[in-house]
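Exercise: predict the fold of this chain.
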Amino acid sequence: MAGLASALNAKIRSHPVLNYVCSTHFWGPVSNFGIPVAAVIDTQKDPELISGQMTGALLIYSATFMRYSMAVQPANYLLFACHFINEGAQLTQGYRYLNYWNWGGRQAALEQKAREGVDGAKGAADVVKRKGEHVLDKAKEAVGK
């Protein structure tokens, strides 16, 4: 049985593509790609949900591992791409965080929601007014008969 496993391993390792796919140079970055995928998806969510501390930590983490991916031999370009994408997404999240909490974005969002609330209340009041006028007209018709 050990001979079969050894022969299978030798066959895999002799083929360059299979050797790469069966290595940690491939599976490490592939399993790590969940972080940048989640970060890119999070750029569409409400900025109030962004954690400034976590964003800062992920910026440092990705920058460190981008450097590490080029320092190992052979250079791991897939790991570099993973952390490059994450670095870009985290920089976007960092900008959104600062804009929302430090540069007036929160105040602008609250003012926009207040305006929408007032406009919605005016629209609802108009609907109620029209329905009231309709009921009043029907009552006048009923009394006039």
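Check your answer against the key: The mean pLDDT is 86.
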